[in-house]
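dumping this here before i forget
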Amino acid sequence: MPEPNNNLSLHEDVINGTSDLNEVKKPDEKESVVKRTMTLIEKNGCHDTVYMNAAKIFQGIHTEKAKHRMLVRYAGDSAPPVLAFKDVCSQRLSYELAFNALKYQDLLEEMLLDSCAYPCHSIPDELTSLLVVMLYDLQDRKFQAREISDEDEPVADVRKIEHYLYSFRTKLAAALARCRIKHDAPSIEYVLPETIRKQHQRASALPLCVWINTFKISLEDVFRDLKEKGFTKVESVSDLDHYTYGVDQHCGDVLFFPSSLKEELLNLDLLADGKLLLQDKSRSLAVHAAQAQLNSGDDIIVAHVGSHLTIAHLSVLTNHSKSTIFVCGVKSSEEAAELRNFFSHMECTNIQLLHEDFTEIGPTDPKLQKAKVILLLPQCSGLGAGDPIDFILNEHGDAELLKDLFRGTVAKDKLSVLAERQLNELMHAMKFKEVQAIVYCTCSIYPEENERVVKKALESGVEGDKVQPYRLIPPGFDACSDSNVSTETFFRTEPSAISSGCFLAVLAREST
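structure:
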């Protein structure tokens, strides 16, 4: 499988407190930003390292069964796996393969047992995860041989499992056919529990959202370009059909397209040149809500690195107001260099990178005294995310999200840990005396991470007596959009066929 080119280079070896983007050399304009964020998967097999990484991920998230039901044995618990990806394409493939193996674990195990491919004395428990992952991929290719690139470096365990499974391909195909007959399933998707199948169908049908990088192109030029390419503008997401698009009702620089057009969108020059950026709408809502609280010359603190796209979008929206965006938690020189090259390609220049975590930064830090707004996108359970793998890759999420999504719930102790961390971060944000507004946004469906965190923070009185206290205000988004002014203090969207789940709150100082 061909790999996407990655022409990004590293420009700095050490982070000294802050990093300015103005010194960075501009990368080749031909670089495709889109391929760094979303990649279509071809059914001709993967590189050996993708299978190994997928097996490591699957080992950490597979469903552990009671001993009396455990017919297929996996290696015991171990330290978190060390994953090394060639590029974002390989990373996405690895997570998607692991997630599919998790969803179809029962079916794949039944195929191995029914075909007598398992147990096998030459395959130790440490390779069972690799066996299951590669079996999913083999059946997905209709039991056809994998296309192996000359550039693919062989991994002995992968080649061993591949040869073994291929020798059983006829028996495995027959076992799959028997499973489908038993479940009266026209395809393997119908073997899944109905809740999982519906969730998958909902996620795959979600409209694709892009935001317009007005550093590179105007809204009018985008509309003209799309019209020339045969796209028709519609008024509502419910009107999407074939080559159509619409403008979001909340964010005037966000467009939505039918999910069926993913491949066509990825091939558009507008995306390849970084003029349109694919990203979940929830992050666009957050940056628009933050921008609405800024006055000219105000700086803004982004409490977590999160997605590169979110920071770039905020930079585009705030450039005219001469604001500086301070991004917290950039830990390594490699990460800083990657961020700088990405932002340079996007033509963003008003961003400074901070090494410290947000909660390590003092509220009276001199360099942040012009900061009037804090954008807080904390780590969350993420069950409202439309595409869980995008969420993991772009928001530095935990692979455990895939397990939670498959089960449809998050363990109470995990939810409690997340909520406590979110509350601590929000209360820390409220201690910055010069800050006038805080935007808090999650992709969670749980009140414990959403309104309860906000209400506890407001009741804490942590901001002290010498400054005006915070209160909730209705979020404002885009003055150019056609959305009605909200009177609700919390903004939320529930996961549905037309949107992912999102919670957003704006805390502002009470006026004197």
